């Protein structure tokens, strides 16, 4: 497994490698959870996640080393290892600048751009206001249309406080 | 979608991107088919394949452009597009040198090395001799152990002419 030492020789190759890997296997998503303690009643949760079989997880460790953030956790249901970044600060300060500099090539780039927009709205506290939150949900529901969600957009907006 | 024109600025990034993408989504495999016309009764078929949803297939077109070989075909069963390289000449002259120069990082590298060994044995005609073919099947069955095969190693060796 390559280490940061190897990267000194060939960082551009490794950065391209990570972007290509995320293009295939990564998932930018924004989910919503009911939270009584939050004024509008909903928490906005952006994340970048990547799963891999445990015996091929080298690239996940490498990503954590390069991004300098996020966590690895076992998914016992399907014997995979999952690398996740959920901190808004890490997403806006480490992950988003990485993909701005080393862009995705496929249409997943559009997902990333929506994700980016939501993270920046959140950095400005928009997810805590009714109108800002509505705008965020609208963008989020345009992302990963095939992904499963616990609540529909209608349900979320209906129960907004 | 980036073109070869863009590559001139940043080839190392794009090559890394492709290796990373293949690390996640690519499959090096060697399958075997019964063939009456072949003396030993079996054909050895190496391939590199990658699938992607059609709306995110840009990277497949880019790979075909960079490797300069292979075919794209629709898989109507799951609405994906598949990029495949099956020509032994293309595999040994274009694909293998690419991954020698821009290596895989995860354990998939071991799959590639077995694949590489088989392709070179085939270039030397070993798949057409009984002993060479046996050696090849042994290596091939160590690859992608989770993949499904039509014939077991036992069945193949038993019906060897």
Q: Oligomerization state of this entry?
A: homodimer
Compute the gyration radius of chain A: what is it?
A: 17 Å
The CATH topology assignment of chain A is Endonuclease I-creI
- Tell me the name of the CATH homologous superfamily of chain A: Homing endonucleases
Proportion of β residues of chain A? 15-25%
Q: Care to count the β-strands of chain A? A: 4
Shape descriptor of chain A reads globular
Order of helices and strands of chain A: HHEEHEEHHHH
The N- and C-terminal alpha carbons of chain A lie at a distance of 50 Å
Largest sheet of chain A: 4 strands, antiparallel
Largest interface: A-B, 29 and 29 residues
Trace the largest sheet of chain A across and list its strands: 1-2-4-3
Give the CATH level 1 class of chain A: Alpha Beta
User: Percentage of helical residues of chain A?
Assistant: 40-55%
How many distinct helices of chain A?
7
CATH architecture of chain A: Roll
- Category from helices, strands and their pairing of chain A: alpha+beta
Q: How would you portray this structure in words?
A:
The structure is a homodimer of 161-residue chains. In chain A, helix 4 (88-101) crosses helix 5 and helix 5 packs antiparallel against helix 6 (130-140). In chain A, 47% of the residues lie in helices and 20% in strands. The model of chain A has no long low-confidence stretch (mean pLDDT 91). Chain A has a 4-stranded antiparallel sheet. Chain A has 161 residues and is of the alpha+beta class. Chain A has 7 helices and 4 strands. Chain A has a single domain, classed as Endonuclease I-creI. At the A-B interface, helix 2 and helix 3 of A face helix 2 and helix 3 of B.
